Every structure is written in C-alpha cells, then in structure tokens.
Amino acid sequence: MHILSRWLFALGMTVAMLCVPAAADQVAAQPAAGSRHMTLAAAADLHYAMDQVIAAYRHDHPADSIDVVYGASGQLLTQIEQGAPFELFFSADSDYPKQLVAHGNAGGQPVPYAVGRIVLWSASIDMHGVQVAHLAQSRFGRIAIANPQHAPYGKRAEQALRSAGVWDQLQSRLVYGENIAQTAQFAQSGNAQVGIIAQSLALDPAMAKGSYAPVPPTAYEPLQQSFVLTKRGADNALAQDFARYMQSAAARAILARYGFTLPGGADH
Amino acid sequence: MMPLLSTQDLQAFWLTLRLAATVTAVLLLLGTPLAWWLAQTRSRWQRPVAAVIALPLVLPPTVLGFYLLMLLGPQGAVGRLIAAMGLSALPFTFGGLVVGSVLYSLPFVVQPLNNAFEAIGARPLEVAACLRASPWDRFFSIACPMALPGFITAAVLGFAHTMGEFGVVLMIGGNIPGQTRVLSMRIFDHVEAGEYSQAHTLSLCLLVFSFAALLAMSLLRPRRVERG
C-alpha cells in the first residue's frame, strides 16, 4: 500500500504539473478580447523573409498572433491534407497549392506572391563569376541541393545541373537536404562546399559570410510561388487579412529585398 | 502496375541491413569490454561513464546529430583531425552514419551486456581463479558463455535500433542513394512526396522486421538457468 500511495502521489504531481502551464496559457490567451490567432505553413525558402513580413504585420496589428511552421512544401502539403492546423499555406511553387485545391482541402484559389531564384552559394570558395557548368571541377567538392523529389528548389537545382550537362557527372558529389533551409545549413556549416539554394536565403545577413553566384533563370523552369487559404483558413478572419496584406506595398517590398521577383499586376 | 519495391527502395533496404550489421559488429566489439569494465570496476568513474553511455536513451537524436555535424565538419575539431590524417570527411558518408549510429545505439548494447555480466556475480569467477584460470581465460570460458543471453539481447537490440534510426541520419546523412539513404529516410521521402503506397510497403517491412526481431530475441533466450 505504501508503494501504491507514493505512486499515486507521483502521478498526481505529474498531472498537476501538466495542467498548471496549460491553465496559465489559457489565462494569458484570454485577456486581449478580440485577439486573433492563426498558424501559417511556409516553404523553407521564406524562412527569413516571412519572419520580416510577419513582424511588419504585427507592428500594425499588435493584437493578432501568428505562428509559423517552416518545412519542405511537399511535407507541408502532406501535413495539411492530414489535418494539420494551418490556416495559410505558402508553397515554394504553384503545383502544391493547386493540389490542395484539387483535393478539396483549400479555402480559396492559389495566389501567386513571388518568383523564386536559385544561386550557387559557398562559405569557403569565392563564387563570383562561377557558372553551373564549373561545378564539375573537383575543387567545388560536395554540392548540396534540396531533395528534388519533394522540394521545388531541389527540382530547379536538378534542372539547372541537367541543362548545364553536369547532372550525371555530379551524382557522386551531390548531397540532399530535406528542404532548402537544411540545404543552406549544409553549405553554411561547410560540410558541403557549395549549396544550390534560394536567393532569399543567400541574401539574409545570416548567410553574409559566404559568397554566391546567381544561376541564370533560363537554366530552369520559372519558380512561381503561390499561397492558398486552407479549408480551416477560410473561416479565419486573420488568415484572410494576412492574405490581403501579402499584396500590400510593405509586404512586397520585404519580398523584393529578399531577392524575390514579384508577380506583376495585382491590385494595390 | 508498379512492382512492390522499386530498385531505389531495395537499395535503401540493403543499405540499411548493411549499416545495421556493421554497427552491431562494431558495438559488440566496443561494448563488450566497456560493459565488462562497468560490471567489474570499483572506480569512482563507473557511474559517470554509465550515465554518459545512457545519454542517447534520453537525448533527442537531433542533439547528437547536431553535435556530430559540428564536430565532424570541416571546421569541427574531429573533422580537422580527420582531414589532417588525410582521410575524407565523415558527414554524408556511410562511415559517418556508422559513427553516429554506434553512438546512438551504444546503450542498447552495453546495458544488456552489463546486466548479464553483473548477474554472473563474483563467485564463479573466484572459483575459476582458485583453479588458476587466467583473467582472459575467466572472461572467455566463464563470463562470455554465462552472459550469452545478454549477448543475444544486445545484438538484436543494437541491430533493430539501427534499422530504425532516423534522427541522426536526417542530420548528418545528406540522403545520398546507396550511401546514406536508409529505409527510414526513404519512408520520410515517400510520405513528403505523397507516395503513400510506397511508404506503406516500406513501413510494413520495418514493422514486420522489428516484430520478428523482438520475437526471435525472446525465443532465442534460454529459459532461466538454475544456478547452484
């Protein structure tokens, strides 16, 4: 009995510890009456740019709270289709948002918000003037790309390597990141000498210690990126406001600063 | 009609088996003396060392993977040492996965061995010593046979745990076909690409394998031996 009562005590303490923070959360979440919340899922290439956009939005709307989850676009699509609680989905391409619509899991039509670019980035090698075809030289060592199977930037990297005629030759030197952010991290840590990464990541101060060379946009299929409201996002006023905010001059300026070309002709 | 397993899936399957076999062999070689020392020593380092070995049980594999990536990378201490010895860097290679998996599966091998060695007790070894058995003789003729169930458990757990390893591989693997693209990575890729049927097939393979391994382990273990 003695052991049992101790065990029950421990169990009670555990339950109590689990409940207290949860209750505190609720208290903290309650007071701002009319405060709104949403979670958006964004492709990893937006890592720095989206943080800035959200900061700018929150500056104007301090009562709203926005959580972000970054990942590979394919991974995020899978998660949304399996019921992940995301209100907005920013893909690194336009195919995944279209799929979400086709499968009946979207709350609107895809909206193009940017055109992505890829660059050759290195922490240790001066990349100025380097072309994709040069990567065949052994001095470039290991080359990190995002997984072409489910990362749009990986697909574009593969296309660029193929159009330069070095894809087959480089097979043994390629390393695959799960998404473009991990690919950038492989290159940033020097474990891969070169990374074929999103320009939006290369332009962030965090990556400033390296150098990069843009890949000519003719070498790969244009990477038009779209976002879409999810089904649950259709009922969320904040998600709709934020979707509109993406068309604003402020949001577009931030994206432009991160090297995205903007789809022309939208309103505003 | 698609074949049940694609060539790439099969490649991942064999690679995973090769990794698990290599890691198990290395772990038995490393883990046996380590477990023996832990069971025999009266050193004040015994408990700290045991705690360090048990760390992978509670640490997220991402922590281990992160440290390995930093240590083994070109700027890392170990990475520089390896480069100075003229060897190629470990991240993104099969060798790197072996190193990572050995660390990650270490407690799964050392702990059963340690328990088995401790269960022998001092007496059989003292008796053997009285009969003038050398320390080596005592270890190989007395301790090892008596700890056989421990060896079986250790080998099966080390092998099965490496088969299912994911977090460390994700951090230091680089997902290279035939080198570091193991089954768990392949399943992850299939799921991310929305290829659920392939993910189902591979997951079922791993599930059946893991169950079979655990069942075999309990069947192989001799029943409790009565000791006089």
**Rg of chain B, alpha carbons:** 20 Å
How far apart lie the N and C ends of chain B?
63 Å
Radius of gyration of chain A from the CA trace?
22 Å
The shape of chain A is globular
The count of helical stretches of chain A stands at 10
Q: Looking at CATH, which topology of chain B would you report?
A: MetI-like fold
* Class derived from helix and strand content of chain B: mainly alpha
Contiguous low-pLDDT stretches of chain A (5 residues minimum) are: 26-31
Strand content of chain B: under 5%
- Order of strands across the biggest sheet of chain A? 2-1-3-10-4
Classify the beta-strand content of chain A into a percent band: 15-25%
Any idea what the CATH superfamily of chain B is called?
MetI-like
User: Would you give the CATH topology of the largest domain in chain A?
Assistant: D-Maltodextrin-Binding Protein, domain 2
Oligomer: heterodimer
Question: What can you see in these coordinates?
Answer:
The complex is a heterodimer of chains A (268) and B (228). In chain A, helix 2 runs antiparallel to helix 10 (249-257) and helix 3 (73-81) packs parallel to helix 4 (95-102). In chain A, the strands form two sheets. Chain A has a five-stranded mixed sheet with strand order 2-1-3-10-4, with helices on both faces. Chain A has a five-stranded mixed sheet with strand order 7-6-8-5-9, with helices on both faces. The termini of chain A are far apart. In chain A, 40% of the residues lie in helices and 19% in strands. The relative contact order of chain A is 0.18. Chain A has ten helices and ten strands. Chain A folds into two domains: 37-115 and 223-257, Periplasmic binding protein-like II (D-Maltodextrin-Binding Protein, domain 2); 117-219, Periplasmic binding protein-like II (D-Maltodextrin-Binding Protein, domain 2). In chain A, strand 1 (37-43), helix 2 (47-60) and strand 2 form a beta-alpha-beta unit. Mean pLDDT of chain A is 88; it is low at 26-31. Chain A has 268 residues and is of the alpha/beta class. The longest helix of chain A has 28 residues, at 2-29. With 228 residues, chain B is mostly helical. Chain B has a single domain (17-220), classed as MetI-like (MetI-like fold), CATH 1.10.3720. Helices cover 75% and strands 0% of the residues of chain B. Chain B has eleven helices and no strands. The radius of gyration of chain B is 20 Å and the shape is globular.
